[in-house]
Automatic annotation (TrEMBL):
Active-site residues per Swiss-Prot or TrEMBL entry: T13, T89
Domain L-asparaginase N-terminal: 4-194
Protein name: L-asparaginase 1
SUPFAM superfamilies, per database record: Glutaminase/Asparaginase
Lineage summary: Bacteria, Pseudomonadati, Bacteroidota, Flavobacteriia, Flavobacteriales
Organism, scientific name: Cloacibacterium rupense
Name of the coding gene: ansA
Amino acid sequence: MKRKVLIIYTGGTIGMEKDYETGSLRAFDFNHIFNKIPEMNLLECEISVHQFSEPLDSSDVGPEEWKQIAKLIEKNYEIFDGFLILHGTDTMAYTASALSFMLNNLKKPVILTGSQLPIGDLRTDAKENLLTSLYYASLYENDEAVVQEVALYFEYKLLRGNRCLKYSAENFDAFISPNYPILGESGVHLKVEESRLFKTNTNDDFFADLHLSDRVFLWRIFPGINLENLPEIPKIKVLILQVFGSGTIFSSQKTEEILQKIKDNGTEIVVISQCISGGISLGKYNNSNIFKKVGAISGEDITAESALAKAMHLIDNTRYKGSFGENFSKNLRGEISEFE
């Protein structure tokens, strides 16, 4: 039985080719992808293509485009066995994180990929990323999808979408998952670490929750920062503070007063680490106790991309019972580690 996969092309380097008259890169009609990569015809899956009316640089992909992708998946969920989203690399981790929270009761693979070089380049990484992503998007065993979450495939590795980040603008191996092991690896054999995969524990029907709020702000703390500017940010429901190490900040009465003022103004404070690897451990050092005093929320080992997407999804979302803090602290889609 051939599995059916829908490719959603949003834009990005993977769909570019060189205009030899101008020397510039331009998007090509992705409906002609089979001419570019005839090997796709050899795959044991039926492939359909939906492309955005205007291919977007990933820096132009945000909440409205996330909703567009989620609605496309919802509309076609019963028709296709898997979904492959082709996306520019710069904001791919944000999109993957957002979709992981928006797609509820997901039991089919949603894979994102892209490339560092255009598909027409001699040394391109686009062909391998695209072909292997299609394998993962159509991988079933005993009539059940092997991957049932939002994942990102790049340079031979399958990563959890809400756990990864782009760390290199030049290497083919551009993405890492610093706080969670890889889900699979492509070599001579296509490997999947099934014990690491996220599976929903409900039999409820799939649906896309399009709720996203823009009343969130990410602020990176740095030595010498004037914290008095923070309470002046208007209309913010959640302030994500990216702090030092495992959760430290300069300890002073003034700092505590400013953070407390922010809380008293009705803004939740989420604390995440500036370190790529590891996470927040409030109380480990004395200079982290200030966050306990003001009732800040620990982001544990979540990435900045995932923290933003999760906050945007949870703010004033009536589908969730309990407070924002209670829900943010839960491991909803495998985005944080659950420590003993």
